[in-house]
Amino acid sequence: MNERLQANHKIILGLKVRELRLEKNLSLTELGKQAGLSVSYLNEIEKGKKSPKEDKLEAIAEALGTNYEALISTELPAKLEPLRALLQSNFLNDLPLELFQIELNKIIEIIANAPAQVSAFISTLIDLSRNYAVQQDSFYFAALRSYLELHSNYFEELEQQVDQFATTFGLSTNSVLSAEELASLLEEKFHYVIVRDGLDTYPDLKVLRSVFIPKDKKLLLNSELSDMQRAFQFGKELGFNYLKLKERANTSSVRRPNSFQEVLNHSKAIYFSTALLLNRKRFIADVKDFFSKPIWEKQAFLNIMHQHKASPEMYYHRLTSLLPQFFNLKKLFFIRFIHNLHQDTFEIDRDLHLGDRNHANRNEMNEHYCRRWIAVHILQQLKQYQLQNGKDKILLVDAQRIEYHGTGDEYLCLTIARNAYPSPNKNVSVTIALLINKELREQIKFWNDPEIPRMEINKTCERCAITDCKERVAPPTVLEKKQKQQKLQQALAEIIQNGH
Q: Which fold has domain 3-134?
């Protein structure tokens, strides 16, 4: 029997012993006397920590008025059936509990203390997940975001491992590493075979950047990748090898994860590659120089990215890692929008919130994101530019000060938009939004530049109470439904209070 099954059997046994004991109205002390066992030992059994030998189980079964076979079976009462389904699934085992410093036994203790209530709660969660089409992979990615947010997306251990890697292989930290340098390392030190046009004969795979074939250590690349994209893919592969991350997907990104560990390992490889390509010391110095400018300069912001030969996503990943740690800008969020040009729809496919989760985030209800926000507006500008000038690889950059309607929270937003090569018929924008507070005003000298436009925004049109919005593309249906419910509750309260 493997370790997971053994653990599940202990938990089920403990739940059954507790349930039978309560049905017979026995205390642990009374059961202990009848079975000839200590209270502490029985307590460990009920918490799923102990698996008694056959003679002790027979004594417990006799004291509970049942038999040995019934006690050791994996069957549970009907009201606890969702718990059995939960234990037989990989859910508890896939929870990254150790990352959040939570012991599995503590969760089992909660289940043991109120199994019927927890069972009902689990059934509710299952129903909600079915109604809203929440998949297991969505849970894995949500858990990863929470883990990154818990650590402010900064990992000193990985930073040190990147430094050790550079030292071990004699890489210069005073200049930007080229894709060819990293490719040579993969080939010579880790025995990779790199096929630079390896995906070109597979039309269905043109949206992927790379595919790794483990048995041959062969890396198939999309020939449409830019130098920086190739360098990033090579950096990730070096990360997988140097950090000894065995559990991984074979595609450039995790599309259908098999476990949380797989998702976490890809996140570590991404961090490794980004830190390797955007040297921490030089990057911090460049950002400090940019923040010291008295006015907002678009080109100066882009120049940092160009000097480090980074993509917008790499650039923003490094910003979210280093701004909280080295600039004391701890309240920020990152959003990436995808604009489907054929359907003219906008979707958030990546988000990270440090210090606050109350504002912009993914919305799975097919609502319309606020068109006033620069992250969406700049994509509309990019589409118009492409219609007029063709679809060359171009970048648009802009800044905006936004205030979330009804909250008083104001953010400085810096946004870059580009076409989503190699993905066809899509554009993408990345935005970092920094809360305007005392710390930001001390660090960023151009924060109050009058040339930076200001705008009051909301999350989606369906939830927005701004009445004079020219950019609105959908009526405030969710808000109206909520207001109707509030009026109904108010009318009911008045009737009850006045008695008529």
A: 434 Repressor (Amino-terminal Domain) (1.10.260)
